[in-house]
Amino acid sequence: MSSRRSRITEDEINELISKLQSLLPESRRRSLGRASASKLLKETCNYIKNLHREVDDLSERLSGLMDNMEMNSFEAEIVRSLLRS
Question: Which residue windows are coiled coil (predicted)?
Fold first, then answer.
């Protein structure tokens, strides 16, 4: 068995950067223009952090709604079971 590490080519890096940039929302892509890979990675990290904050906020809001639902309602139980999975 060889322990050689496979090397990634510059073309492969450029392709991955392009794919990563395509995952960002249009507004963020526009602000980047032809940004460096470093700037793109920083912007992607910021975007992911913002998504985490949004998920946390939505989770809190959903918890508040769940608290206000009738405890024995069938719909509330379905939502609770979905949240647990």
Answer: 41-68
Query: How many angstroms separate the CA atoms of 65 and 57, rounded?
Result: 12
Three-state secondary-structure class, residue 14:
helix
pLDDT band at 66 (very low <50, low <70, confident <90, very high): confident
CA gap 55, 81 in Å, rounded: 18
The pTM is what? 0.65
Angle at 44 between CA 84 and CA 55, to 5 degrees: 25
The structure tokens 């492969």 sit at 12
Q: What b/e sequence results for 11-41 when a residue is b if at least 16 CB atoms lie within 10 Å of its CB, and e otherwise?
A: eeeeeebeeebeebeeebeeeeeeeeeeebe
How would you write 7-25 as a 3-class SS string?
CCCHHHHHHHHHHHHHHCC
Strands (E), 1-85: none
Name the one residue in this structure whose structure tokens are 């032809």.
Answer: 34
